[in-house]
Amino acid sequence: MSENEQGAIMTYHEMLQYGRQTLENAGIDDAALDARYLLEWISGYSHADLILMAPKPVEETIVQRYQQVVERRACHIPLQHITHEQSFMGYSFYVNEHVLIPRQDTEILVETAYHKIREGYSVECKPGQTAISPDKSIRILDLCCGSGCIGISLAKMLQTIGYSVDLTLADLSEEALKVAKQNADRLDCKAVLVQGDLFENIEPSYQILVSNPPYIRTGDIPELMQEVKEHEPYMALDGRTDGLYYYRRIVEKLADYIEDDGYVFFEIGFDQAEDLRKIFVEHGFQNMKVQMDLTGHDRVVYAGMPGRKD
């Protein structure tokens, strides 16, 4: 059994106190929550289990492993890089240092695309049918896919309502594509993986493009949280001087890869919507719309291709 500084056997309650205090001393936000998550992960106990286990002694092997992961988190290594898990849209994704950690804000992108696809590509049902007929196919390109969380989640959601999804996951990073492939396999989602610089090696054409490209201004990266600027892939963050570099490159090529009745969906920074609107207009788009996140900040922009009739 484990012992505290007074030589007494440590309990689960004392272990949580140790974890919280260690992380607070290191300046970790949500120290108590991270300490609890790590103990749940190491011990295999749920939150409810830990409440019941609070006064009970901790096995030495659990103590040692817990101390190791708490020390890693105290060095500002992201929690998800320690557990290699992140929930996104209700699915569990594998993550590592080669991909951005999926974030709740990005779920707005998936939700917006999902609802717009249902609206714009409705599947007709026969009289008396209650389920959507599973004969509507749709081709989706997730550009700068990283972990694949956007494209995979969207495909899974559409499949549950009867769509047949032809999904392509594309990224410049070979290591990121390995993660995307692992996630596609673990979530039983068929996908073609393509390595290249944006549309390089992509074959036309698609009805839907979703993308969370690098959009942080180079000069703003040093101001990001330590967990982000030191541990997440720089190439997935850096949107060059004004943060718009990749949007420009993507929008100018959309007509070559997205069908006339297609849609494009981007995640954006909170102050980039109007600049991106100008880029869209320059390339013939007049119908860009903005979706806010739960805090009221601009988070997603989307537009139908100029050839759409709606």
Give the key terms.
Helicase, Ruva Protein, domain 3, 2 domains, alpha/beta, two-stranded antiparallel ribbon, 310 residues, elongated, Rossmann fold, 12 helices, seven-stranded mixed beta sheet
Describe this structure in words.
- The chain is of the alpha/beta class.
- It has two domains: 12-75, Helicase, Ruva Protein, domain 3; 86-123 and 131-304, Rossmann fold, CATH 3.40.50.
- It contains twelve helices and nine strands.
- It has helices spanning 12-25, 31-43, 47-53, 60-74, 79-83, 104-120, 149-160, 174-186, 226-231, 245-251, 254-257, 273-282; strands at residues 85-88, 91-94, 136-143, 163-171, 192-195, 206-211, 258-267, 289-292, 298-304.
- β3, α7 (149-160) and β4 (163-171) form a beta-alpha-beta unit.
- The model is unreliable at 123-134 (pLDDT under 50).
